[in-house]
Structures are given as C-alpha cells and as structure tokens.
Amino acid sequence: MQANIFLLALAMPMATILLVFGMRYGASVLQARAQQRTGASQQDLLNGLAEIKARLAAIETVLKDVS
Asked: pTM of the prediction?
C-alpha cells in the first residue's frame, strides 16, 4: 500500500504540470487562430475600402467631365 501512495505522490504533481502546460499551449493555439481570422477580416475590409475608393474616383471623374 505504501508504494501506491508513493507513486500517487509522484504522479499528481507531474500530471498537474502537464495539465498547466497543455492549457497554456491550447490557449496560445486558439489565440493564434483568432488573430489569423482577424487579419483575414481586416484584409477583406481593406479590399472593400479600396473598391469603394476606386468607384468614388470614377464617379468624381464623370462629374468633372459633366460640369
């Protein structure tokens, strides 16, 4: 019975350490995925803004030609 307690006393701190590092790794993976999605969303927004600017420039050109 003493061997079981000894092994349990060794295994519990090691399991705790592995659990903490596993949680930190998981959190960093989730954070990296979120940043990647945010970067893609920002790029889509910038592309849309560039398209709006191009359309506005075309409208300004037409209006200058008319007046």
From this structure: 0.58
Tokens of 21: 């590092």
Place of tokens 């060794």: 10
Query: For residue 50, what are its two tokens?
Result: 């560039």
Burial class of residue 3, CB neighbours in 10 A (0-12, 13-18, 19+)? exposed
SS3 14: helix
Alpha helices by DSSP H, 1-67: 2-66
Q: What is the mean pLDDT of residues 34-57?
A: 90
Q: Residue 44 pLDDT > 90, yes or no?
A: no
